[in-house]
């Protein structure tokens, strides 16, 4: 049986986490439990198990029903809790289901949430529309301490932020929030590059659809936190049915084994491409963590004050020709896929203002730099020269289209 070793590196943990019982089971690949219901031969045990699971316990002698517990889902939760150095992890059918569960679980503590923009467009929309009975106040990180109220129940940040790659100092936000829990959406960073719980965050959220799955074939969301905070999250999952299907959990767990390799390779590509983009005449600005001129560059690196161990695999670029250049560039790519989402083995490019952040109001997009000429690039593991050849010809095509339209 593999023994949990806190001294092991993330590269090793990503391969072995959630596999400690393989030797005992006599398997080399994770089993999949697709049962929707489980026989109850001992009614007393079944009743006790039902009460425990509905009450938010992580496990019970009998799973009873798959909406309450599934062993395959529990396995990937164990793995991700280890990667994020938290006591627990609760998995959901999507990142939005995970965020909704946290918000609903905090509702008993208050009705006011502080949010640092920008965040993922659907997260922004959910918070702004007030559907869950919470008042979301959008603030800067520097305003958090001054905007706290007695009814503030949560502070939400996303770092690196979607889509501008803005970095927010997690330690500073935790200090400013005081006793109010802080949720960090760490999707862009992954546990390989950033561990917010070690910096004081109460909740670490990932859209596991992205890097954690890594192959564009599973939708999932996870929240890593303490055992105490996981309990109401499990209750909320049982009540609302926001569960992750066991096949999705299997694919997610399988993806973790190559997470460190994928992030390392894609990050090398991204560093190279970001540097090349700064010299391309079609590009007016590149947003990439740690790059000269980026905000909070000191938060990236291997020094003691940094929170990210590397810049990651996402970047945004602003094009000289604005919206028309962005649309023409997206239409011209041949190797890179023009599509939303990110963190897959293949590279994806998309237009935030027109797609992922379309539901954010115009003023908020303008205020937070989500411009009509911005494209977001999720760099994959392809050969960097092939990626650059495709991207540069697409940028050239975008410039040519603008020049042609201007001449006409």
Can you give keywords for this protein?
globular, alpha/beta, 12 strands, Aspartate Aminotransferase, domain 1, 39% helix, 15 helices, Aspartate Aminotransferase, domain 2
Please give a structural write-up.
The chain has a 7-stranded mixed beta sheet with strand order 1-7-6-5-4-2-3, sandwiched between helices. It is an alpha/beta fold and about 400 residues long. The radius of gyration is 22 Å and the shape is globular. It is about 40% helix and about 15% strand. About 50% of the residues are buried. It folds into 2 domains: about 250 residues, Aspartate Aminotransferase, domain 2; about 150 residues, Aspartate Aminotransferase, domain 1. It has 15 helices and 12 strands.
